[in-house]
Amino acid sequence: MTSFQMSAKEDMVEKFLDAAARGDLTQVSSLLSLVPSLINQTGYSGWTALMLAARNGHLHVAEKLVSLGCDKSSVNSSSQTALDIAKFWGHRHIAGLLSQSEGSCRRILPGGDLSLQENYFGRETLDRLSGRRTDEVWLETKQKDLATVYLLFSNLSPMVSTPQEDSEGGDIKLCRFRYEAVKDLLQKPSTVLIFLGMEKMKSSSSSSSQTEEPPVWFAISTDEDAAELLRRCRENTCLFPKTPNRDLLKLSEEEAGVVAQARSVLAWHSRYSFCSTCGSSTHLEEAGYKRSCLNPECRSQRGVHNTCYPRVDPVVIMLVIHPDGNQCLLGRKKVFPAGMFSCLAGFVEPGEAIEEAVRREVEEESGVKVGPVQYVSCQPWPMPSNLMIGCLAVAVTTDIKVDEKEIEEARWFPRQQVIDSLFRGASPAFFVPPRQTIAHQLIKHWVGMNSNL
Ligand SMILES: NC(=O)C1=CN([C@@H]2O[C@H](COP(=O)(O)OP(=O)(O)OC[C@H]3O[C@@H](n4cnc5c(N)ncnc54)[C@H](O)[C@@H]3O)[C@@H](O)[C@H]2O)C=CC1
Ligand SMILES: [Mg+2]
Ligand SMILES: [Mg+2]
Ligand SMILES: [Mg+2]
Ligand SMILES: [Zn+2]
């Protein structure tokens, strides 16, 4: 593009975003019919037309953009989606439009906020097809299918390609292999192979192309030397991330969902090599979703035993709201980076309800007593296999006494300080975990819930 063409394009984007911000539906529509690609363009601080319409309450513009298929999930430089912005500024009609709730569902579950909050690691890109896990003939055919995608894991980290040094952005991508490139690994007895599922059909694809089944995905975990494995990749920008709980947050939402599934199942295989009932060796079944004991006398062979299936550990994570409604309780562990505060969290114990786990963990960790508890959303957290159950809770006492074994400091933070910190206002007093964590999303949920409503 010449510099003249570039500046003409920039002018057009600016005009389009300005029209959306002013609520000028006629201009928004005519510019879009001229240049459809304007729809997801961003301007200052990563704001899209939809975000600007949501900021200023222009429902008709927002409706037009949504009807033309704009990206509702993109985030600005403060990690806000258009829905966050609509909620924050109190434009309920736009928040309703963007929260995707079906009218008929509203009638069945009246009063509930049905906006589906999707958290990082939670996107289901693949259809798990659990019914196929016992169909060995089908699985074997799929393993050899030329379109099948294989992900390679070493030490519970997936092989990823990192961005070229001269490119912008810090995203990493999964390295995808075909059958030919991994078939030697499939022969090795130590290899663990997990069937992940089939790519979901795109609703937009034409009916003629739907005769062919979409590709299926497998994950391979191998004990082959990591450096050897990297040689299989043509690009020289590939690696196995060393600090998964930081590095895996750089994947796209789609790939993060697949990694959450694969990593948790592989972590279970790597930690549960022997039967926990009798100590005998076990073998892998059901395309990686079951481990059965090899001892025919073992009790786990009779009936269904949960020890044979991958585990999920429920964890409650809660934003505790002060009885005055205008402060929230955040704490920090010694291992957190300096200045970071987050929601309190803790493992649910056997025989414990979610609400009780929230009350117990908050009291143990901060000394604060909690009354009402409300579920908000959840997040699979594959380190190794937590299910984070996100709640809001209202405190009934306010004195803080931390459990020094776990928490270094806990404090009540006023709403304005939290807003400054979330949206990177001038010199924030503290900072919160990144947007990929449910802790961040819970804090944002509270701030957005009643700020300007
Ligand atoms: N995605 C997110 O936003 C966040 C995720 N987390 C995750 O939640 C988890 C739990 O939070 P904590 O405050 O550490 O829990 P916690 O307050 O229950 O304390 C952890 C201790 O609980 C015990 N424990 C009980 N059941 C356990 C189990 N199934 N696995 C491991 N330890 C168990 C261990 O002694 C452990 O040291 C952590 O693994 C952390 O990675 C925590 C905060 C934010
Ligand atoms: Mg805790
Ligand atoms: Mg605890
Ligand atoms: Mg605990
Ligand atoms: Zn056994």
Notable characteristics:
Nucleoside Triphosphate Pyrophosphohydrolase, alpha+beta, binds zinc ion, 3 domains, 453 residues, five-stranded mixed beta sheet, single chain, binds 1,4-dihydronicotinamide adenine dinucleotide, binds magnesium ion, six-stranded mixed beta sheet, Serine Threonine Protein Phosphatase 5, Tetratricopeptide repeat
Describe the structure.
This is NAD-capped RNA hydrolase NUDT12. Belongs to the Nudix hydrolase family. NudC subfamily. One of its GO terms (biological process) is NAD+ catabolic process. Its cofactor is Zn(2+); Mg(2+). The protein is an alpha+beta fold. It folds into three domains: 3-108, Serine Threonine Protein Phosphatase 5, Tetratricopeptide repeat; 126-271, Nucleoside Triphosphate Pyrophosphohydrolase (Alpha-Beta Complex); 313-447, Alpha-Beta Complex (Nucleoside Triphosphate Pyrophosphohydrolase). Helices cover 32% and strands 19% of the residues. The protein is built from 15 helices and 16 strands. It has helices at residues 3-22, 25-34, 49-56, 59-67, 82-88, 92-98, 103-108, 136-144, 179-187, 226-230, 244-247, 253-271, 354-366, 415-422, 438-450; strands at residues 126-127, 149-154, 157-158, 160-161, 173-174, 192-199, 216-221, 238-239, 282-285, 290-293, 313-321, 327-332, 344-347, 370-381, 386-395, 409-414. The longest helix is centred in the N-terminal third of the chain and has 20 residues, at 3-22. The two termini are 46 Å apart. One magnesium ion binds next to strand 13.
